[in-house]
Write a structure and sequence with these properties.
Layout: E1 9-10, E2 12-13, E3 17-18, E4 21-22, H1 27-33, E5 41-43, E6 48-52, E7 56-61, E8 64-70, E9 77-80, E10 83-84, H2 90-104, E11 108-110, E12 116-118, E13 123-130, E14 133-141, H3 143-147, H4 149-152
Parallel strand pairs: 1-9
Antiparallel strand pairs: 2-3, 3-4, 5-6, 6-7, 7-8, 8-14, 9-10, 11-12, 12-13, 13-14
Length: 167
């Protein structure tokens, strides 16, 4: 299974956001940036979560955008040094991130579920099961969330196989 070819491409803006979304936006500003009236779904949990069409999930802290999670197949594509981060074989994505970090002196971090993050970019690459196949999916977070043990261990873990997520 592969990620769809005609998907939108969003630019990673280290420390600032992704595509049209900027950290610290309000829910109304996020909806406006995505050119929708409201999200498809609001989800409870440790963070305020809104799910939008086209595979975009956003998470708020105190009413401000703090995390953007993209679906491996339906979400926008994110490129890092011309490498597509969404919808890849997780081992390929992991190897790419390790090589990128070595070449660019990026700060690496493994999360409790064994996802790999480049903290200076606010980039976390998780996996998502799609039709029985695991695929990479980018999650963009404010750097302070990756640096905080509290937030890092409670990053949005939806889509992680049961038993792999921290409490």
């Amino acid at each position: 299974m592969s990620a769809r070819a005609g998907r939108a491409r969003w630019e990673l803006l280290p420390g600032a956001g992704l595509g049209p979304l900027r950290f610290r936006m309000s829910p109304a500003e996020v909806a406006d940036a995505l050119r929708v009236c409201e999200p498809k779904k609001r989800v409870g949990g440790p963070y305020e979560q809104e799910d939008f069409a086209d595979g975009v999930k956003v998470f708020y802290e105190a009413g401000e955008l703090a995390c953007i999670a993209l679906d491996a197949v339906t979400g926008p594509q994110v490129l890092l040094a011309d490498f597509a981060l969404a919808g890849r074989d997780p081992e390929q994505a992991h190897k790419f991130l390790l090589d990128y970090a070595a070449e660019h002196a990026s700060c690496l971090l493994y999360t409790p579920d064994d996802s790999l993050a480049l903290t200076d970019l606010g980039l976390l690459v998780r996996t998502q099961e799609v039709g029985g196949v695991r695929m990479s999916r980018p999650v963009i977070v404010r750097e302070d969330w990756l640096e905080s043990e509290y937030h890092r261990d409670r990053l949005p873990l939806e889509g992680v196989p049961a038993g792999d997520a921290s409490p």
